[in-house]
Amino acid sequence: MITGEVTSDREAVVSIRVVGPSGEATVMAVIDTGFTEFLSVPPEIVDRLGLPFVTVMPMKLAGESEAGFDVHVVSVDWDGELRVIPVLKAEGAPLIGMALLRGFRLTVDGIDGGNVLIVHLEA
User: What confidence tens digit (pLDDT) does each residue in 53-90 have?
Assistant: First the structure.
């Protein structure tokens, strides 16, 4: 089970640990159900952890604009399991997308300070 909270900015956030060849970091990541990929983190995290580059991925953004994002590889502590996943290098707050939430139930209490709960769904 992963827990977090709803901020006063109305964002559902959880703390996750990301690990790369040059170290690790704990980041507060915003849950974004409109983001279909696994995870995005800012360039400074990618660079500090020395995350290996894989490719550039074109993506459509809100408003139908297009941009290319560098894709790297990272290990993330997800519900007590270290998973190796692709991560997008992107400005702004780290984002958790629907690919990382696959197989999990997300519950959000939509009030300031509300609980965020991510629970593995048993097959």
Answer: 999 988 877 777 888 899 999 999 999 999 999 999 99
Distance CA 16, CA 31 (A): 11
Helix/strand/coil for 63: helix
Closest CA to 39 of 17, 11, 60, 10: 17
Distance, in Å, from the CA atom of 114 to the CA atom of 12, rounded to the nearest integer, reads 9
pTM above 0.85, yes or no: yes
Instruction: With a cut of 90, say whether residue 93 has pLDDT above it.
Output: yes
- Other CB atoms within 10 A of residue 28 CB: 14
Tokens of 3: 């827990």
Q: What is the DSSP letter of 35?
A: -
